[in-house]
Design the sequence.
């Protein structure tokens, strides 16, 4: 079993890389952002409460995301290991995760930090969109569908942009990252879990660098 965290600011490529590693290594991607967006879409009680917070680029309460993760990790599809993507986002969540994993007889194998130049983040986030059907990620400048308006993976023709990927909210989310989430780099460094990967390289190169980290810890 391999449990990993992908750590980095919004736009660092956590979601893209989590999908790659999940497919290659048979791990389950657990994105709290995706789960919360699904709850918003399904108009559940959690979704209704989370929506206003997410639209502002702020953090949903720790108790909510910790419970979501704790419940989700018990599912059989998480048995081989998971990649936490967008979780934990602050120190209390990191400490809660330690407890959750311990109580379930699991442990963190590595925390992979994706390092990206600050100046690139806003450009990366602002142009991104996904296939509305299969969720494949695209970018106006860096990764357009091969055929205009048609998803490379499922041939879907509808695409969506996240409501919080606007210039104003992105700046807020970056500020929240630096204030709340970046201290986790020091936290995991001190615990001996931290591995750093250059997130500025191509998607394929970053993925290979992560493979090399996984090969070391296995
Ligand atoms: P993401 O898809 O990871 O960029 O998350 C989108 C939004 O969902 C964030 O800006 C937060 O509002 C919320 N969110 C996602 N994960 C967490 C988390 N671990 N803790 C609190 N809020 C979160």
Sequence:
């Amino acid at each position: 079993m391999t449990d990993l965290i992908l750590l980095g600011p919004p736009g660092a490529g956590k979601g893209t890389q989590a999908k790659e590693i999940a497919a290659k290594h048979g791990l389950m991607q657990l994105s709290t952002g995706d789960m919360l967006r699904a709850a918003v879409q399904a108009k559940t009680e959690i979704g209704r409460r989370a929506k206003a917070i997410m639209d502002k680029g702020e953090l949903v309460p720790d108790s909510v995301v910790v419970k979501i993760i704790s419940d989700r990790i018990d599912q059989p599809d998480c048995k081989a290991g998971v990649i936490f993507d967008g979780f934990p986002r602050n120190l209390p969540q990191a400490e809660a995760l330690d407890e959750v994993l311990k109580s379930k007889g699991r442990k963190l194998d590595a925390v992979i930090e994706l390092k990206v130049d600050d100046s690139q983040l806003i450009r990366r986030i602002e142009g991104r969109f996904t296939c509305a059907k299969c969720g494949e990620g695209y970018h106006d400048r860096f990764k357009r569908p091969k055929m205009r308006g048609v998803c490379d993976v499922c041939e879907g023709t509808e695409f969506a942009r996240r409501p919080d990927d606007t210039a104003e909210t992105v700046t807020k989310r970056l500020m929240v990252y630096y204030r709340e989430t970046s201290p986790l780099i020091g936290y995991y460094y001190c615990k001996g879990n931290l591995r750093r990967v250059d997130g500025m390289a191509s998607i394929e190169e970053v993925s290979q660098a992560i493979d090399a980290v996984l090969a070391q810890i296995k």
Observations:
- Strands lie at 4-7, 28-31, 82-85, 110-115, 128-131, 137-139, 159-160, 194-198.
